[in-house]
Amino acid sequence: xxxxxxxxxxxxxxxxxLSSDNYSRNMSENMSEQTAAGRNSAVYKEEMxxxxxxKPIPIGYLNWIKKAAVLDFGNSRKDGRKVTQRIVxxxxxxxxxxxxxxFLIYIFSVCAGLYLAVKRGTKIDQISxxxxxxxxxxxxxxxxxxxxxxxxxxxxxxxxxxxGIITSGFEEKSVIERFxxxxxxLTLPAVSLSIGEIIFLTQFIRSNTLEVLNKQFIISARAxxxxxxxxxxxxxxxxxxxxxxxxxxxxxxxxxxxxxxxxSIYSLPGLGMMVFEAFLSRDLPVIMAITMFSAVLTLLGIxxxxxxxxxxxxxxxxx
Length: 319
Prior knowledge:
The chain has 319 residues and is mainly alpha-helical. It is built from 13 helices and no strands.
């Protein structure tokens, strides 16, 4: 993980440094003399110090990585606040959205995957394959906008809020009411974010379950007269989970990437919205910090997946 993270950080630093240098110089040329001599000059000097624009790339990288190691990513161009402080403020919202999405993904995909495996070759299996293919082909942003139009705002069905993560008077509610209030706000974004993963994992679980059902130990279990539910949910599902575990590690980073679009559409104050605004305003310190956060999250996800794989597969522990 460490050499990979160093490689990612060095490549990202090199690209962002070039972009920061050119953008800061263009800013100085395009803005008025008074502004360029004031705030813009201060931004340029601050980023020159942060990214080491006056030093060779290797030296500048070493200086920057020392600061990044202690979570010092400089100040945001948007409001001059610490980047780390801004991330800490919105990170819980993104975590809640992703956890809600993971919950929906595994609940629906496991149930649907097992059910379709049992109903293999039936009309329900054939129709669901066509429907899943169509839905999976729909772009995420279009699906999110469609759901927002039909299920929020009052034009068709006013079932969910248009934006935000809490309603007014949130502080006066009880703990349970707060929980359901946040869940109510996050339902549409979580469904929009997870629908593609639900379909993919449903088909993945169906295929793996069908493969396991053809194994010799399943045939032996049925020959012994075990109930079909026990054969499916105990013997078949437990063994089909081994490949499924490897998907968990990559799921959360994938959801985090998709949340950039979803949080922007639903106006949720999270990391996705922050990185979207940062790209529009060329807020390079924020972009750099969130890029490194995504890299660390992806690497930790892969590590977590490897650990879980060794837990569910005894052969890995023995080797």
